[in-house]
Amino acid sequence: MQAVLEDCTPPSKLRLRESTSLEVVFKIQETCNLNCTYCYMYNLGNDLHKVVPKFASLETCVAVADFMADELLAHDLSSARLVLHGGEPMLMPAHRFAERMEAIWARLSERLPASLLGRVGFGMQTNATLVSDAWIDQLARWKINIGVSIDGPAWLNDRRRQDHHGLGSHAAALAGIRRLQEAVRAGSLPGVGGLCVIDPAADGAELYRYLSREVGLRSFDLLLPFMTWETHDPNVVAGVGRFLRQAFLAWREDEFAARVRIFERAMKVLRHRGANAADVDEVAVGHMIVIVESDGSISPEETLRETTKERVTSRRVTTSRMRDLLEDEVFAHVLLADRTWATECRGCVLLENCRSGHGLGRIGQRFSGTDYQRKTVYCDAFQEVFVGAAALLTDGGKSFDRLAAPHLANEADLAGVST
Predict the structure, then answer these.
(1) Which residues contact 79 (CB under 8 A, 6 or more apart)?
(2) Domains of the chain
(3) Rg for the chain, CA atoms, rounded
(4) Signal peptide span per the entry (predicted)?
(5) What angle do CA 50, 198, 1 make, to 5 degrees?
(6) Which pLDDT score is estimated for 3?
(7) What is the pLDDT of residue 306?
(8) Angstrom distance (rounded) from CA 142 to CA 144
(9) Secondary structure of residue 314 in the 3-state scheme
(10) Residues 102, 299, 294, 89: what is their CA dihedral angle, to the nearest 10 degrees?
């Protein structure tokens, strides 16, 4: 893929929109205590995790802080969020994590005025199996929003989310979630959200009710099993479409008691049409996501690991800034491809909302052969979501009045960004 991208001239220019927000997903710990079957980091053929440090050094942490400070100072960002990711961040001893957060905060405090420092927020994505008092103290100290990964009740979760000995993770994860929720109730933590990777054979309504009622998650996302056109399975797409239809109906019947990110995004994009990058001279980027590995290397999208054995870019957090990334041939190509509609989508009534999958999916799900020019592999499944969302928009009931107000606004509101 690398050679193809190097020969490609982007069709448009990228620029940062006014009030751009920044999200830095920092792989502070590259190893994991689980061995989930669907994991794009360890089990889909990419070995990048084998050649980077197991955890980020203090120097890399300071470089990440400098990256964020430079962007806040240069662009007056509306917000800058640092998401501590992995692997599993809690594999790092709590005292070692404390050293890294102290170094990050010291550098940010040194370089930023109070008005900009107040725009910095922290999140963490965890499997919740290693939650301890020491870790809760750290999460509380830095006011870290938590995203927990859980795929449903034990019989469902433990089919795919197992440890390296083949044992299920549900009991430990649920115990960790309960401890985190207790800390939220005590006012120590700001919030706990969830991520669930869809099992195409599961019942979406049952899963929605389990996460929202039994686990008590008030916000969560439903993630699509990662596929490209090279690994496309129509049975998986059909199962995911059925699952999403069932979950959407349960969410509506529940009067939107929980925030479900994929459904909220569908409602949002149906109300706001997008522009095709191929039809405009400039594309404005309003929310920038940057993935930083433990060695300080940068990439635009972590699920691209399945589409290439090589690093996506050679950029590093010590020497590159957002404007550099927008001019980087590989980085810009990925961002523009994600905003360019596929030829095969022409004539689709949902095109200006779905945008060939950009509205709900990820650019890697358009990968075929050497590039990202096809529609999303989840086209049929997304239709299920958009049809349900469109029906809700047009029913004229009071239910949508609740949904349409401010909590639809920001796609980065929920804790966690990926599996």
Answers:
(1) 21, 22, 119, 120, 121, 412
(2) 2-408 (3.20.20.70)
(3) 20
(4) none
(5) 45
(6) 33
(7) 64
(8) 5
(9) coil
(10) 70
Q: Which two tokens stand for residue 338?
A: 């994600």
pLDDT tens for 108-137 read 999 999 999 999 999 999 999 999 999 999
Q: Report whether 199 contacts 156 (CB < 8 A).
A: yes
Q: State yes or no: pLDDT of 387 exceeds 90.
A: no
Split at pLDDT 50, 70, 90, the class of 333 is confident
DSSP 10-73: PSSEEEEEEEEEEEEEEESB---SB--TT-TTTSSS--GGGTS-SB--HHHHHHHHHHHHHHHH
Distance of alpha carbon 31 from alpha carbon 52, whole angstroms: 10
Per-residue model confidence as pLDDT tens digits over 308-325: 655 567 899 999 999 999
Joined together, the tokens standing for residue 341 give 């509609």
Beta carbons within 10 angstroms of residue 230's beta carbon: 11
Terminal-residue alpha carbon distance, the chain: 24
Task: Fill in the amino acid letter for 139.
Answer: L
DSSP state of 211: I
Amino acid at 163: D
Structure tokens at 80: 């800058």
Q: Per-residue confidence at 272, pLDDT binned at 50, 70, 90? A: confident
Strand partners, 148: 126, 194
